[in-house]
Amino acid sequence: MKNQSKTKFVILGLLTIKPLSGYGIKSIISKSIDHFWSESNGQIYPTLKLLLKEKLISLKKREAIGKKYRNIYSITKEGFEELKKWLNKPYEKNTHRDESLLKLFFGSTLSIEEAIDHIKKRKKRTDEKLKNYHLIKKELEKRKNLPHHIYWLITLNNGFAIANAEINWCKESIKILEGHKK
Fold it and tell me: According to a count of CB atoms within 10 Å of the terminal CB, is the N or C end of the chain lower?
């Protein structure tokens, strides 16, 4: 399964929650898994077509506001089995690319002040992420009765742990750099 797009499994997984439109899938991604997994909008619709062709999802047209129709997708039994098969396979090595760290790695070409400013901006972005995680957690509290709740909570807790570690790293890095000012 090396180099295979995981978009297929993101969609199948989301459809185990409830039937969704393509827009609904994009919306849930941005409100739930986007802190650890991103999908481009350009991948979702072609993957939906592929999943239909493979009979892993089914399609129902539903009238929306006005004369427009919205496609609503549901996972099929075959789709559920495909998802379960993938969930039980070992995961591939995570690839981590961080432009901010790459720039800091070559930070000796910057002034200490410029490097500190870079880290302060990173910390500010991480503070914003942390605020967003708190909002997500409030929403999760309303969904304690759902079977997915505990799994959503543990992935969110991972986001909290990483964000808090990142904030601590930023503070420590700023102290280190300030100690090297001449």
Answer: C
